[in-house]
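Next comes this protein.

***
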Amino acid sequence: MFPEAISVLAQTIFSMSNWMTSTLHVLLSVSPKGPKPSGVLSVTDSRTGRKYEMPIHRNSVEAIRFKEIKAPKDKDHPSDKVEGGLRVVDHGFQNTAVMASQITYVDGIEGSIHYRNFSIVKLIEMKKRFEDVTFLLIWGHLPSQEERQKYKKDLAAAMAPPQLVSDVIQSFPPTTPLVTMVIAGLSAWAGSDATVIPAYVGKNIYQGNLELVDKLLVRVLSALGTVVALAYCRLTEREFTPADPNGSFVQNMLIMMGFVEKDTGQPNPKHIDCLERLWILYADHELTNSTAAFLHVASTLADPFTCSIASIAAAYGPLHGGAIETAFKTIRDVGKPENVPQLIEDVKAKKFRLFGYGHRIYKTVDPRSVFIRELLEEFYEPHNSFLTVALEIDRLASKDKYFTSRQLNANADLYGSFVYMALGFPAEIILPLTMVSRCPGVMAHWREAMGEWVLCLASVLKSNPSGLLRSTTPDMAPPADLHRTT
């Protein structure tokens, strides 16, 4: 395939992946499990006078139970579908639990994170490595020495890119946004072995088949890391270096990117240790928007490469992972510390939004920030003007009542980006590297979902019922749920 054609194909794939995430908030609807209800929600429908009781499990009720609350058909408002049961409207899933999971628990009030039964504080104190923690997330227990070695070697062995993938990445100009390169590279990786695509082979191959799921999740982890390394090499116009069969995942990432010491040809051990600790903190964070996008697509039993493309496209938005890139542009435009006070005043005057501040979950300090600050202190150099401006913004914001009263703290993703900068990475690669560090958690959720599968189907409320056109055409379908095909 000619480079120009590959580039066009890559851009088309990127556009399709954005479309795939347009309803990304709808996910696996798994009933919360408990020995017995903790209480009962009693409901009286004033339209009919009927009473209903719904069991409360773990401070939640099943939304499907509301379909039992029915009323006579309303001919004047057919789009309300009252005869089909009461519907629950929750814009943006602000108060809806869409799945039950045993993987990660985030307490935004207390400011704690647990991977399985281990707090991240405990895992850091135990000096666990990236392979240990990702194994814990995916398979539910810390690995034995034998399991760790096999897992490490399997990851390294899967880091050899197919030629098609290398050609696709090379077809892009070096100035191309790296995330678009990564999306195209992952698609090419899946295309190089179409047997991983259920629609291509004509059958379900993942649901209930955890042996195959385990093989593919390792392949996707390594593929994403390798594609990001290839994209970085394209950005910096350097040669790609093959992974070391005996190297760790983080070590091989740095090797493939050419981020090594000149005298040894190997990554700086301090850099490896820093990224190991940082990536442990980033490995999972419950059901983020991008993880939700992955699982939405996975509910159709699509392959994990395709699901990852949807996830990455979601993460690229400025209200998610793309906030890092947007924040960097703001910091760059400020120029020098003396200009920071005016920036703070402009934000308070709502002239523009300061991305990278605030978090929808935490009502206190993000527990990851404590450890990330420690990493930053280890590698921060005063002559780094960019970091000097960033830290001055944080210093003033942390003392300003406008920010403190709204609990607008620099979030862990923004702090982590400062660590990348301190290590010497350019801003363009930070979001792709963050995606790599989050991938193990996403794979853990995929593995869990393939054991208890539900197809995601979204429904909507007609916003202008009186505007419905009544047609006598017999083959015209009535108003229906979006995306419903069965």
